[in-house]
Write a structure and sequence with these properties.
Layout lengths: L3 E3 L2 E3 L3 E5 L7 E3 L2 E3 L3 E5 L7 E3 L2 E3 L4 E5 L6 E3 L2 E3 L8 E3 L5 E2 L10 H7 E2 L10 E2 L17 E8 L2 E7 L8
Parallel strand pairs: 1-4, 2-5, 3-6, 4-7, 5-8, 6-9, 7-10, 8-11, 9-12, 12-14, 13-15
Antiparallel strand pairs: 16-17
Length: 171
């Protein structure tokens, strides 16, 4: 109970964080989840957990699997590089849950709907309510890692290039 996981980088894990049954009032704050199979799984009976101000990028299967909704907060998170992806946020409960004020790297609601698995996909599940959502990445969160990094050697020079980050506060 009351565990705080803050300011970490979770990289290339099968499951980065798994909240066991009855893990209550945990705070997952300001972390970077990068290239994990699954980023966060909230177990049944895990109540009052807060997942705030995290950055999720290039996680393979899903970002969060929710098995308990009582008192869960999932807000102010940035989710990058989801083009062509589906079902990265799962509601595995019958209860509705507000997951508003997150950045989905798109403002097209049909694209956000594809990223969520809930009542719209299976009538026995609760709805994940994501509106209102952030239209720009939250710059308080950890910076997203380089995307499409390319290394080239030109004579005695090493040249690194990558796609520009989405965060607006970077030079």
């Amino acid at each position: 109970d009351s565990t705080v996981v803050e300011n970490n980088i979770f990289w290339r894990n099968n499951i980065a964080l798994y909240s066991e049954n009855d893990a209550n009032n945990c705070s997952i704050l300001n972390n970077s989840f990068y290239q994990n199979a699954e980023a966060i799984v909230l177990g049944t009976g895990s109540q009052g957990n807060k997942i705030l101000h995290n950055t999720f990028s290039l996680n393979k299967d899903f970002i969060i699997g929710i098995r308990e909704t009582i008192g869960i907060e999932f807000h102010q998170n940035n989710m990058f590089h989801n083009v062509g992806r589906e079902n990265i946020v799962f509601n595995n409960t019958q209860e509705d849950l507000s997951i508003n004020n997150n950045f989905w790297a798109t403002v097209v609601t049909e694209e956000i709907d594809r990223l969520i698995y809930d009542k719209k996909d299976n009538l026995s599940l609760g709805e994940l309510i994501y509106n209102p959502f952030l239209s720009l990445a939250n710059t308080i969160n950890p910076i997203s890692p380089p995307y499409n990094l390319i290394k080239q050697i030109d004579g005695d020079k090493l040249i690194l290039t990558w796609n520009a980050n989405t965060e607006v506060d970077l030079m």
